[in-house]
Write a structure and sequence with these properties.
The complex is a heterodimer of chains A (117) and B (147). Chain A is mainly alpha-helical and 117 residues long. Chain A has seven helices and two strands, in the order αααααββαα. The longest helix of chain A has 18 residues, at 95-112. With 147 residues, chain B is α+β, with helices and mostly antiparallel strands. Chain B has three helices and seven strands; from the N terminus they run βααββββββα. In chain B, strands 1-7-6-5-4-3-2 form a seven-stranded antiparallel sheet. In chain B, helix 2 (26-33) crosses helix 3 (117-139). The longest helix of chain B is centred in the last third of the chain and has 23 residues, at 117-139. The chains are: A mainly alpha (117), B alpha+beta (147). The interface between A and B is medium-sized, with 26 and 29 residues.
Chain lengths: 117, 147
């Protein structure tokens, strides 16, 4: 908790962007988007990363609240928390631009034939 | 044990009491959610989510499961068409904890039916609603219209 309190009142944009600048951490976020609520070993298994690497990356992601962990029984489950990214986007994207960007993103997805997010 | 489908967290520079009020007071929810949450907020009571415009459209219904102001609120959550079908009701828990000089809000949404339409709209909805709530409480301005 102490980690969060010094970083957060608003989103610390530098810290969030640094956290997602790492490809392994983006793969962890992608994996959680595909299936939310995974344990550390499930994430490691899907991504072919050592337990230690997964654990360190998750710690970084949790510190900037891009990942939230909850305990259920003996398991620690990890969740994608898109809110910091949403807040960063809102800072620069007005509602009118958003409509246009969404249309462009839809168009791109349709042309590329797949939803790559 | 069942795994929740979504857990959202946001840190807001406010007090637990103000945040609690912002979740329940229809005048406040109208500002950042463009909807009103209506209930007497007693455990067992029904609650409704209605559009805050002239149409007053009923969008969601459910029951208050737990209410412990200003820390914990548990609601069931369903489309009005599914009001009588409890197996189709999902469950939302709001937890409010002080975190230094800010407040941590955790929203857990769980117990969806497999392949639920609600689940898809939730995924788009909560980040918008929670960012707008945070903006209203911290800057006095909600985000532009969400929907």
């Amino acid at each position: 908790m102490q980690v969060f309190t010094c970083i957060f009142s608003g989103v610390d944009i530098d810290a969030v962007l640094k956290a997602i600048a790492n490809p392994a951490r983006r793969r962890l976020l992608d994996s959680l988007r595909a299936r939310n609520g995974q344990t550390l070993s499930e994430l490691g298994g899907h991504l072919d990363m050592t337990r230690q690497a997964v654990s360190q990356h998750l710690e970084r992601l949790e510190a900037v609240a891009l990942v939230t962990a909850v305990r259920r029984g003996r398991e620690k489950l990890h969740y994608l928390n898109p809110i910091p990214i949403h807040e960063i986007a809102e800072r620069w994207i007005s509602k009118y631009e958003k409509r246009r960007l969404e249309t462009l993103t839809d168009l791109r997805k349709r042309l590329e034939g797949e939803d790559h997010g | 044990m069942d795994r929740p489908e979504f857990v959202y967290v946001t840190y807001i520079a406010t007090t637990p009491e103000k945040l609690w009020n912002a979740l329940l007071d229809p005048k406040v929810t109208a500002k950042y959610w463009q909807h009103e949450n209506l209930s007497d907020w007693k455990p067992g009571s029904p609650w409704e989510h209605r559009s805050a415009d002239a149409k007053r459209e009923l969008k969601l219904v459910g029951k208050v499961v737990e209410s412990a102001p200003p820390r914990r609120l548990v609601l069931t959550w369903a489309a009005p068409a599914d009001a009588a079908r409890e197996q189709k009701h999902s469950r939302v828990t709001f937890e409010i904890e002080p975190a230094g000089d800010v407040v941590r809000l955790t929203v857990t949404h769980e117990r969806f039916e497999p392949g639920s339409e609600m689940l898809r709209s939730i995924r788009e909805g909560w980040p918008k609603v929670l960012s707008s709530l945070k903006s209203l409480l911290e800057n006095g301005r909600p985000l532009p219209r969400l929907w």
